[in-house]
Amino acid sequence: MSSEVQQQLVSYLNDAHAMEMQSIEVLEKAVEIAGDIQLAQLYRGHLNDTRDHERYVKQRLEDLGESPSTLKNLAGKAGAMGLGLLAQAMPDTPAKLAGVAFAYENFEVAAYEMLRKVAEIAEDQDTVSMCDRILPSEKQAAAVIEENLDLAVQRSLEETAGIPGPGAGEDSGAHA
Ligand SMILES: [Fe+2]
Predict the structure, then answer these.
(1) How far apart are the CA of 170 and the centre of ligand 1, in A?
(2) Cα 31 to middle of ligand 1, angstroms
(3) Distance in angstroms (rounded) separating the CA atoms of residues 52 and 127
(4) Ligand 1 centre and the CA of 167: distance in Å?
(5) CA nearest 31: which of 40, 22, 21, 20?
(6) What are phi and psi for residue 175, nearest 5 degrees?
(7) From the CA of 165, how far away is ligand 1's center (Å)?
(8) pLDDT in tens, the chain (176 residues)
(9) Distance between CA atoms of 134 and 154, rounded to whole angstroms?
């Protein structure tokens, strides 16, 4: 591959790595303030997957000759992609948190779709395969969070406004 294409590939991989580092940080906080056992389990499950994704991307960078010293500086790059803002504005209700998580997962899907396209042009089959491995996990995370948005809104209203959600009368106290 040309050096320009290689440079672009490394740049996209760097961005993906920074994104995963930021995602780990967001999900760790999300587990703490999920507001519901089911939501916490959802975030914890994807946190484990995210740690795997971070390792896969780091490995690809190392295989392409990126030095560990470069990798150390990547966390700050997430800010340049606008993801730092999401993390800094870490929401304080389960619903807002679920909204941020939903946005984040969809951003990750877009990032890996783009990385995959660049890897195809660069004829880097290992990176294409890595994207094919990670993308279903990101898409599934986005879909599961979307399915749980109603639950997150319900928990938020219970927490902030004392409004019981649908079915609250049947299992009142179960989530106290
Ligand atoms: Fe993710």
Answers:
(1) 34
(2) 14
(3) 15
(4) 31
(5) 40
(6) -110, 10
(7) 28
(8) 678 999 999 999 998 998 898 889 889 988 988 888 999 999 999 999 999 999 999 999 999 998 644 554 555 555 545 555 665 666 778 888 899 899 999 999 999 999 999 999 999 999 999 999 999 999 999 999 999 999 999 988 888 777 776 655 444 444 44
(9) 31
